[in-house]
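#onboarding

Welcome to the new folks! Below is a worked example of what a typical request in this channel looks like: someone posts a single protein sequence, and someone else replies with the predicted structure as tokens. Don't worry about understanding the tokens yet, we'll cover that in week two.

Example request:
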Amino acid sequence: MNTLPITPSQTVGPFFAYGLTARQYGYDYTSLMDGMLIEPRESQGKIIYITGCIFDGNGNSVSDAIVELWQADAQGQYAAEPIAYPPDHSIFTGFGRFGTGTTANHEFFFTTFKPGLTAEDAAPHINVILFMRGSLRTLYTRLYFSDEPEANERDTFLNSIEPDRRNTLLAAKRTDGHYQFDIRLQGSDETVFFDL
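Example response:
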């Protein structure tokens, strides 16, 4: 008689991973639709690509995290309509999800618009949400852009953080339209997380 194995214990979840990240499996980078917040078309804003890894306290990449992005569009407006499933990527929803276990290096990839200003005292930013084993709660942080120094200087939220830790929230511009945003869970360069 065949029996199913016991589901491993998880502090967050358990996740039905197939339902969360199924469309990523078996596709190359250009087809990772769960990591796309929009189909690459310039008509609605500047297309950008965000790549990153999540690192634990030992510097190892986390292979089973889920990264979610929530953001405003290029005009600084958040979507007000419910998101259809499967999502229509020709309509910008401001939401994307990516499982780090779907790539060999445990990276995440997102294709999106560079967000506009949501307020006069805010810089362009993206809200980042993490789910993973070993974490008793959801983790919240923000991604700001290293090539927006003037806007970052006037961002009230960013400037409420200690100056020597603000750089943990900056996505580094690699080439035009490509940004690297690594998240460190512990250690001297630990990413700033928010108590929401």
